[in-house]
Amino acid sequence: MQDLDPERIRSLLTTRAYGRSLDVRESTASTNDDAREAARAGAARGHVVVADAQSRGRGAHGRVWSSPSGTDLYLSIVERVTLSPERVAPLTLAVGLGVADAVRALAPALEPRVKWPNDVWIGRRKTAGVLVEASSIGARMDAIVIGVGLGVNRLAWHEELASSATSVLHASRELDAVCAELDRASALATLLGAIEAWVDRFVAEGPAPVVRALEERLALRGERVRCDDVEGVLVGVESSGALRLETSSGPRSMISGTLRPL
Ligand code: BTN
Fold first, then answer.
1. Residue 97 Cα, ligand 1 centroid: separation in angstroms?
2. What Rg, from alpha-carbon coordinates, does the chain have?
3. Residues 252, 245: contact at Cβ < 8 Å?
4. Is the CB of 192 inside a 6 Å radius of any atom of ligand 1?
5. How many CA atoms lie within 13 A of 249 on its CB side?
6. In this structure, are residues 58 and 15 in contact, taking their beta carbons and an 8 Å threshold?
7. Which among 52, 56, 65 is the best mutation to test ligand 1's pocket, defined by most ligand atoms within 8 Å of the CB?
8. For a tag on the chain, would you pick the N or C end, based on fewer CB atoms within 10 A?
9. Chain CA centroid to CA 98, Å
10. pLDDT level of residue 177 (50, 70, 90 thresholds)
11. Do the Cβ atoms of 234 and 245 come closer than 8 Å?
12. How far apart are the first and last CA of the chain?
C-alpha cells in the first residue's frame, strides 16, 4: 500500500483531468461502485478511485474480479462525456487501447493486444480487464464509470486463473526482460495518461482511429474463434464496436458475447 501514496501519484501525473481528483483506498468493495457514488455526489470529470484491494471486484457479465492487495491496480475513472448508448462499446475498446499502450510503456519488450471486447492480453494470457458502466437518470445519461483492473506485479493465481492470467511482471519474467517489481504509483500515472489520451481521441474523432489502431493490435485476428455459439475467422472490429467474423455461411457481426480461440 505504501507504493500507492497519493502525493507521489499526484507528482507523477501527466494528465489534464484523469486523477487530478484522487481517492486512494486501502480496501473497498468495488471502485466502480465508489466512483458511481462520487459521480452522483458531484465529483468532477476525471475523478479517480483506486484501491489496494477489493472485496467485491466486478468483471463483465457479473463475474468476480480477483483483487488481492499489494500487487495490482484496481481503479475507476468518472468520465462525464455525453455519449449515446451505442458509443459505449467503442469507448470500451478505446480504453483497452490505452491500457495496451500503458503496458507497452511500462515494459517495451511486451506486445499487449486488445482482446474484444474488454480485455488486454499478453500472448494468450489476460493481463487487464475494462468494465465501462453507464447509467441514466430518467432520459439523461449519468456519468460514465471506466473501471480497469491491471495485473502489475502478481506472480500467482488461483488454480482456475493460473493458466489464463498474467501480469506485467509475470509476462516480463517469462521473456527474461525486466526482473524488478514495478512501482504501482508510476504504473498508475502511466495508465491514466494513456487512457485519457485514447478517450480524448475517441471523443474528438469518433471510432475511426480506434478501429484503425485495432487493425494492428487486436488479439486473435485471422484466427478461428467462437463467440458464444457462432464460429468463424476473426476479421476485425466495426466502428460500432461489433466483432466481425467470417463464418461458413458468410460474414457475421457480434455486438456482445464471450470470445474464445478454437
Ligand atoms: C473484465 O475483464 O471482466 C472487467 C474487469 C474490470 C475489473 C475492474 S477492477 C476496478 C473496477 N472495479 C470493479 O469492481 N471492477 C473494475
1. 16
2. 18
3. yes
4. no
5. 4
6. no
7. 65
8. C
9. 8
10. low
11. yes
12. 40
What atom of ligand 1 comes closest to residue 58's alpha carbon?
14
Residue 178 pLDDT exceeds 80: no
| Atom number in ligand 1 closest to CA 59 | 3
Kindly state the cell numbers that stand for 69: 492487495
User: If 0-12 CB within 10 Å is exposed, 13-18 middle and 19+ buried, where does residue 262 land?
Assistant: exposed
Please tell me the predicted confidence (pLDDT) of residue 138: 67
Please indicate whether residue 59, judged by its CB atom, sits closer than 6 Å to ligand 1: yes
* Pair type for strands 73-79 and 48-54: antiparallel
Q: How far apart are CA 65 and CA 166, in angstroms?
A: 14
Residue-wise DSSP of the chain: -GGG-HHHHHHH---SSTTTSEEEEEEES-HHHHHHHHHHTTPPTT-EEEEEEESS-B-GGG-B----SSS-EEEEEEE-----GGGHHHHHHHHHHHHHHHHHHH-TT--EEEETTTEEEETTEEEEEEEEEEEEETTEEEEEEEEEEE-SS-----TTTTTTB--HHHHHHHTT---SPPPHHHHHHHHHHHHHHHHHHHHHH-SHHHHHHHHHHBTTTTSEEEETTEEEEEEEE-TTS-EEEEETTEEEEESS--EEE-
CA distance 126 to 162: 11
pLDDT value for 140: 67
Give the sheet arrangement for strand 119-122, strand by strand.
22-28, 48-54, 73-79, 140-150, 125-137, 119-122, 112-115
Residue 129 in contact with ligand 1 by CB distance below 6 A: yes
Peptide bond into 6 cis (omega under 30): no
Q: For 22-53, what is each residue's pLDDT tens digit? A: 999 999 999 999 999 999 999 999 999 999 99
